[in-house]
Amino acid sequence: MNTRPDQPLRLGTRRSKLAMSQSGHVADAVRAITGRAVELVEITTYGDVSREHLAQIGGTGVFVTALRDALLRGEVDFAVHSLKDLPTAQPDDLVIAAMPLREDVRDALVARDGLTFEQLPDGARIGTGSPRRTAQLNHLALSLGKRIETVPIRGNVDTRIGFVRDGELDAVVLAAAGLNRIGRGDEATDLLSVDNVLPAPGQGALAVECLASDTDLIAALGELDDPHTRAAVTAERSLLAALEAGCSAPVGAFADLPPLSAPLEWGDPHADGQIVNEMRLRGVVGTLDGSTLVQLSTTGPVPQSYDEAMALGRELADEMLAKGAAGLMGERSL
């Protein structure tokens, strides 16, 4: 960490409105913890300049590599990533010092005329750049007795919602967390239940990354870490890694606490007098047309360590592979 207190800490971030917003929230928290000024350093990634669809360029790391290179060159002190964009393999010289409290994990539908997913007409055109969403949306439509056409799209939130506003598409699907972070959550016409559409592993969570050698900064950033978010996301990413699937594979995963008779917030170990001591991990892999899904779940003790969270993910991945998940993902990649 830059040891001169009169010098600001440099936070590396992508240039998009969403990235700047979520990095800004982290910067505010770091200022409060350290008493240091924090400046945002805007960095353009390959994923920002490429016009190819994410599935074509691999997805894994396209929004991350330039930020990590800036860290390694000493141009920034730490970086903020959307955790779902991170490859599952962590470089030895970098460390995720914090995973702050997770936002809404659900996918959000923004549709014309305020329609929900169930109200969309047969043959509705829905924009998404995610094979995971494509597979599950098609499956959900089939379960409702209708078909949809999924249209691959790229671009920022304004661009994507613009396709609906201009009448090119009936709806688009975005991460609810992203809409919330830029103050546009009220534009969602439907929030898709995780019982119907599982999110991407790590969706709604952020990763605050710095050099593994910067012990002072690691300790400071660690104040932002939410243990339940870290445990859940680690289990989800372990599932993804064990399936040998990248960010662009049609894989959904979500780890949470099993439902109880009373509402429960992350970080609260009790509900209605009950001690919560289990975590449920759900995973899904499907064909893009939605005709076939492998969807399984497992429940185990709330992980108390990185190794326990990893083991939960590997356990479910093994079960999914035994049920034929590998054959539904196309080409597998690390």
Written account of the structure:
With 334 residues, the protein is an alpha/beta fold. It has helices spanning 17-34, 46-49, 54-57, 65-72, 131-143, 157-165, 176-181, 215-221, 227-242, 306-322; strands spanning 9-13, 38-42, 78-82, 94-98, 107-111, 124-127, 148-151, 171-175, 190-192, 206-211, 251-256, 270-271, 274-275, 278-286, 293-301. A five-stranded mixed β-sheet has the order 2-1-3-10-4, with helices on both faces. A five-stranded mixed β-sheet has the order 7-6-8-5-9, sandwiched between helices.
What's the quick description here?
By secondary structure, the chain is of the alpha/beta class. It has 10 helices and 15 strands. The strands form 4 sheets. The protein has a 5-stranded mixed beta sheet with strand order 2-1-3-10-4, with helices on both faces. It has a 5-stranded mixed beta sheet with strand order 7-6-8-5-9, with helices on both faces. Strands 11-14-15 form a 3-stranded antiparallel beta sheet.
Which helices and strands occur, and which strands form pairs?
Layout: E1 9-13, H1 17-34, E2 38-42, H2 46-49, H3 54-57, H4 65-72, E3 78-82, E4 94-98, E5 107-111, E6 124-127, H5 131-143, E7 148-151, H6 157-165, E8 171-175, H7 176-181, E9 190-192, E10 206-211, H8 215-221, H9 227-242, E11 251-256, E12 270-271, E13 274-275, E14 278-286, E15 293-301, H10 306-322
Parallel strand pairs: 1-2, 1-3, 6-7, 6-8
Antiparallel strand pairs: 3-10, 4-10, 5-8, 5-9, 11-14, 12-13, 14-15
Helix pairs in contact: 9-10
